[in-house]
Amino acid sequence: MAQGKIYVSALEVAERAGVSRSAVSRTFTPGASVAPETRRKVVEAAEALGYHVNQLARGLMRNESGIVCLIVSDMATPYRSSLIKALTQQLQNTGKIAMLVNTDRSDGSVDLALRQAIRYRADASIILSGLPDKSIADLCLKSGQRLVLINRNDDQEGTLKINLDDREAAGRVLTAFVRAGCERLAFANSDARTPSLMAREDGFVDAARAHGLDVIVERFGGTTYESGKILAQKLLTRSLRPDAVFCATDLLACGLLDAARHQFSLSVPEDLCVAGFDDIQQASWSSYDLTTFSQPVEAIALEAVSWLADEMDPAVRQSHSSRRLHAELVWRGSIRGG
Amino acid sequence: MAQGKIYVSALEVAERAGVSRSAVSRTFTPGASVAPETRRKVVEAAEALGYHVNQLARGLMRNESGIVCLIVSDMATPYRSSLIKALTQQLQNTGKIAMLVNTDRSDGSVDLALRQAIRYRADASIILSGLPDKSIADLCLKSGQRLVLINRNDDQEGTLKINLDDREAAGRVLTAFVRAGCERLAFANSDARTPSLMAREDGFVDAARAHGLDVIVERFGGTTYESGKILAQKLLTRSLRPDAVFCATDLLACGLLDAARHQFSLSVPEDLCVAGFDDIQQASWSSYDLTTFSQPVEAIALEAVSWLADEMDPAVRQSHSSRRLHAELVWRGSIRGG
DNA sequence: GCCCGCCTTGCAAGCGTGTGCAAAACTCTC
DNA sequence: GAGAGTTTTGCACACGCTTGCAAGGCGGGC
Predict the structure, then answer these.
(1) Nearest-CA residue of chain B relative to A311?
(2) Is B111 touching A (CB cutoff 8 A)?
(3) Which of B135, B99, B137, B92 is CA-nearest to residue B117?
C-alpha cells in the first residue's frame, strides 16, 4: 500500500464535479447555501472518489474539533466501563467522538496524556476519575474546554456536575435494614474518600442515628473486590458481629459476600443482610444476588452529552450547572423480606 | 469564560521570545536544529504563555495525526475493557492517543462512527470487535490506515493479526480433564462463531478425539453470563450428564457454574469440572475460583502498539504481520487435582 | 424594460503548523 | 585574517478546509 497521496481533497472533488472548491465545502457544511443540482454533482463526485472531509483542517478553521476527552481512572472496572460505553455511544449519536485518557499511573504520564489531549483542542472533557486531581480540571478549563464532572464536587466555574442522590439512597437502604429487623449496622467503605462514597457513608450514618442506631464504619483500600474481603475480616471478626452491612460499592459488596459465606460460613440474608451500590452486572449473578442501587448510566451520559451539545449562553449554562440524578433501589435477595 | 482567543499560537510565543515563528516550531519538533540559547528563550516564553502545539495543524502538515482508533463492540465486558485499558496506556506511552468507536449498534450508526474516525485521519485502527464486519476493515485500509486485528483471522494485506494459541490451550485443558478422571466431556460455546471461539472448540474436540473421547458441543447466544446459564440447562439436563465442561469464555463459565451449583445442586469440582478462558477478574473471585487461561492483555497491547510505532518498510512488516501469543493456564479450584 | 431582492457561486484570505531553501552566523584551521 | 565547513535562522509556501464578500444569475413587481 503506497504511503503518499491516499486521501482525496476537496479540490479533486471540485474538479471532477466541475464546480469550485467552496461548493464542495458548502455541500458538506450543514445549513450552507448550495443549489440542489450542484449538491448532487458534488455528492456524486465525492462518492466516486471516496472523499471524507478532513476533520483536522475543519477543526483548525472552525476552532472546534468535535473531540470530547474522557479522562478516567480504573477504566476496566465494571461501573466505569459501562459508563464509558454509554458516553461514547451518546457522543457518537451527536456526531462527536471520544478520546480516551487513562489516568491510572500517578506519575507524570497522566499530565503528559492530558497535555496530549489539550493539543488536540478537545471541545470538552468529561472527568470520571476518582482521583481528586484538581489540577487536571484547572488545566482543562484554562484551555477553554467545557468540563463535565461525574461524581465529584469540585467547585469550578462553568462546569457541569452530575451527581446522584447518594445521601437519600443511603437513607432508603437503612429503612430496608430496619424493616428486616437488623440492629447491628455497619458501613464498609474504601478509604479513597471520594465525594460520592463519603456521601453514602454520611447519609447512612445520619439516617441510622435518626433511628437511634449506631453504625460501625470501616474503611480500607480502593473500591475493589479484594478490599471487600478485607473489610469482611475487619467487620465479621468483631465480638458483636454486624447483622447488616451497607457497602459503598458493589465490588466491595461482592468481596464481602464471598468472605462472609466462604470464610465465615454465614448465610445471606439470614445471618447477614448486605446492600451495595452501582448495580454492576455481577450484582445480578446468582452467586451474589445483591440488593443494590442502580447507577442511571444512560441518563448520566445523556445529561452530559446534551449539555455539551447545548449552545446556551454562559449565564444560563451556569445556572444549570449541577444535576442530581436518582439512584433506584434494585431489590434482590441479599436483604431479608423484599 | 470568554469564547474567543483562548489558545496561544506559535506566533505569539515567537514574538515574546524575540525569535521567528519557525524557531518555535523547531523547538517543539524533536530532532530539529535549534541553538540551545534560542531553545531556552522559546521554552520560557511558551511556559509563560501556556502554549500547547496545535496537534490539528501539525497533523494537517505532517499528514500524521497521532490518533489511533479503537474499534470495539461489547466494550463494557470484563475482557474487552481490560484490553482497552492496556491499549490506551501503551498508546499514551508512545505519545499517541486513543479514539474510541463503539460498534454495538448494528444499524448505520457504526458506519457513521467509523466514517467519523476516518475524518480525523487516524494513523491506525485496532479492531477488537467480535463482529465479522469485513467492510469496516476494508474501509480503514482503503483510507491508508494501518490495521491491527485482535482475535480475528481476516486475510487482509498489510495488517497485523494478533491471536492466541487457542487450539493448543484447548488441548492442555483436555489433558487436565482426563487427568482428573473425567469421561463425559462437553464444550459450551456461544454461537457467535468468532474465529478464536471456534479455534478453542475445534482444538478441544480434536484433542478429545485423539484420546478416543467424544465431546458434546452446545452453542447458544452471545458470550455472556446469561448464555452460560442457558448452556448449563442444555448440558446438565441430559440423561448422561457431562462431568467436565470447557467454556469458551469465562463469562459463559460463570453462568454455567452458578446454574450448576444453584439450580442443579452440583458440587464443583467433585461432580463437575469446569474450565474457562480469559481469566477475567471474576474468575478469581472465591465464588467461582475458576481454572482458566489468562489472556496476555499487556503483551497483546505491547505487540500492537510497538508494531504501529515501527517504521518498518512494507516488506518486512508483511512478513511479521501475524503474532501468536501464549495463553497460560491458571490453576484454580474448578478442576480436580490441581 | 427596469429595478430590486434573493439565492448561488467563486475568489481569496485565513486557521496554526512543518519544512525546503538560501542567507547568515558561527567555528575552526591554516 | 581569510576561507571552508557547519549550524542556525528566517522566509515563504504548503496542508485542506471555512467563510466573508462581492459579483453573477434569476424571478417578480412596477
Answers:
(1) B3
(2) no
(3) B99
